[in-house]
Predict the structure.
Amino acid sequence: MAAIRFGICGCGVISKLHADCLKKLEAEGLAKLVAAAEPDAARRAAFGDTQGVTMYASLADMLRSSEVDVVTVCSPSGLHGDQVIQIAAAGKHVLCEKPLDLHLAKADAAITACEKAGVTLGGVFQQRFAPGPQAARRAIDQGLLGKIVFVHAETPWYRTQSYYDSGDWRGTWALDGGVLANQSPHMIDRLLWLGGDLDEVLHAELKCGFERDIEAETVAAVTIRLKNGAIGTITGTTVAYDGLPQRVLICGTEGSCAFSGDELVSIKTQRPFEAAPAATAPAVPAGGAGDPLSIGGTGHLANIREFATALRDGRTPSVTGHDSRKVTRALDLIYRKAGVPSFQS
Ligand SMILES: NC(=O)c1ccc[n+]([C@@H]2O[C@H](COP(=O)([O-])OP(=O)(O)OC[C@H]3O[C@@H](n4cnc5c(N)ncnc54)[C@H](O)[C@@H]3O)[C@@H](O)[C@H]2O)c1
């Protein structure tokens, strides 16, 4: 079977990781990067020179060509929903970076557009693929944690003002949000994926523009209730010098687990469980605490490979648009609860 032909939408920081992964998948004969769309002329030229693929000045131009089967969306977060809709209308499959959008209505419209067009929508939540979270998922599937009663996700990270100044979309309510929408989605996803679906946001306290000249939150503390009755907390900041590992706790009546980054540092269950914590450490740490460029590529490779394999085999990918929607729904509900004006419709 011919390699699945990928195009990238948005050639900034994360696109390079996508391109590296697609090179590896080309060597496996599974997928291949053939094109990219980037409105910024200098970035477009640089990406084209490095990657040697056809470059387009806009997503619309790339979609008019017949050379791509799939588009990975690597543009600013607030554009994702509309771009997924545009890509679906062109009959291409979509793999969308986190978050699917900042607004639930946009995420829903994107999912509906893909379903109507009969194209596959997958999400990038690459930290699901690390051994620790996979082991915890198995324990939960086996019922070894009992009734989940408490969950927690925290992101005590550090981002400088120059990080925010590196893109005019960063830290804006229209296109990015703050620590919750940009730096926390993987931990929110882990909390919901392992702990259960969100029922309600009980309280959300945000400090916006605190210590950094941005619109959105640099410190956040949120309390939640899940549909299974568990209560919990989601917290985060981008001003904790010099960045500490993200942490997640999933606590149940018969077992509990704790993550530091992607490492499952503790899992205790009343009934025996297969995985010793030492066996579940990731080969490459998740990174990103103090430096956004320091995330490893292992997770992305696994995520993109699994998506491409699902397309090749005609099955649903393991991270679906509906999975991504859960994170967007949490963000939307949190920002509504906190009274952020652009979320009050
Ligand atoms: N999965 C992860 O761990 C991870 C890590 C980093 C970033 N991301 C996500 O990737 C996305 C991009 O982040 P980044 O750090 O690469 O940002 P970036 O600013 O470095 O890159 C975004 C690129 O998109 C381009 N762009 C702007 N408008 C566009 C449009 N209309 N069409 C096409 N391209 C457009 C910009 O010119 C820029 O080159 C964000 O949604 C972010 O949340 C995910």
Remarks:
- The chain has eleven helices and 13 strands.
- Residues 127-290+325-343 form a domain with the Dihydrodipicolinate Reductase; domain 2 fold (CATH 3.30.360.10).
- The first helix runs from residue 13 to 27.
- The pocket of nicotinamide-adenine-dinucleotide is lined by residues 9-15, 37-40, 43, 59, 74-77, 79, 97-98, 124, 126, 167, 182, 295 (CB under 6 Å).
